[in-house]
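[Meeting: bench + compute handoff]

Bench side (C.D.) handed over the final construct sequence. Compute side (W.E.) agreed to return the predicted structure before the next meeting so the bench team could plan truncations. Sequence as handed over:
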Amino acid sequence: MTIQLSDHFDYNRLFRFTLPSVLMMIFTSVYGMVDGFFISNFVGKTAFASVNLIIPYLQILGGVGAMLGVGGSALVAKTLGEADIPRARRYFTMMMYLMLGTSVVFTIAGIALLRPVAYLFGATDNMIGDVVTYGTICLIFNTALQAQYTFQSYLVVAEKPKFALKVVIVAGISNTVLDFMFMAVFKLGVVGAALATGLSQCIAGVLPFVWFISKRNTSALRFTKAKIEIKPMLLACANGSSEMLSSISGAVTGILYNLQLMRYAGEDGVAAYGVVMYAAFIFLGVFVGYSQGSAPIMGYHYGAQNQKEMRNVLQRSLVLLGASGIVLTALAVLFVRPIASVFVGYDAALFDLTVHAFTICCIPFLFMWFNIYTSAFFTALNDGAVSASISFMRALVLPVLCIILLPMIWELDGVWYSLAGSEVLGVFVSLFFLISKRKKYHY
């Protein structure tokens, strides 16, 4: 039975509708881990540290796709809730034009600035070759990455989350096979890793486009003739700015982590942080996937002014995510050693450092779901200012303060504890906005 945005959502229906988005984010994280596994085990820990050093920069540029996808899809979902399908199609088409234009600009600028940025981020002469090679190849495929991020959000609005999941699975399997072929068989090193990632992104970006223009697309969303309308485009970008801000903030804090870790632990510290982040992305994928998967539901009912259903979805979401946070924290603690051994089992000292770091970094899973969901919740309500404020505080201001201050007290452990400290403080920020805005939106 097809689940529609206009439905009433009990726990079962909410779980079934958001599950493909959750699995989609998990699979995306898993094939990111596959890259790390092959690089670490077949190329070496210096190459592994080099790739992780430049990922924040690629993350900043990729944040544009997240902004256009999430912000645009929230506007489109709200417009569908208002029963204005022609206007929703125009907005959808315009945002695709914008995605293509910005991706080309950021590709050119990103490649031009790559080497000086790499040194700014802390790359050593021993690392710079791998950093520039990996970053350049990945940026060549930047348009495919932007298309992947953007279409993922719109497929959920088109009530096709299962198809979005299938696309990610196909791309993930392709990435894994190509990683093995390029690095384990043909010994292409970081060149192979970047090519595998880029080609899989092409798959994830092209398949949804083909579906949207095909006769199989029976949804309300389809491409149409559209003139550029500045106001709705700016509204969508402003609303999705929290997602881009999260990407940029995560990248900035990642840079600071790497700089602090190079100071206290050298390349081993950066490599250990890379393992922690690869594993954390899987758990983070559950929270992000659910938040993005449920956002179109909230956006639709906000547009339809169905306040009873808005309250229903909010309450059930908090229960589901709270339970997930407890379960995932327990799983993270339980599997910390097996996860570390997969990536750095070949180096005893690095293994011990990674296990110690990951054990501390499991703590934020108890809290971060609330911050992630609250930001996505206000994006769904088309309140980009509140969503961006939450993202700005919990993903940039608070982490930066913790990264700078806590190592002064606990040195290397202070770097690991800063993850938990920033998320705990972020809960108070999210709670403030959720309470203060309840009368405005009647949720």
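W.E. noted at the follow-up: The radius of gyration is 21 Å. C.D. will use this when planning the next construct.
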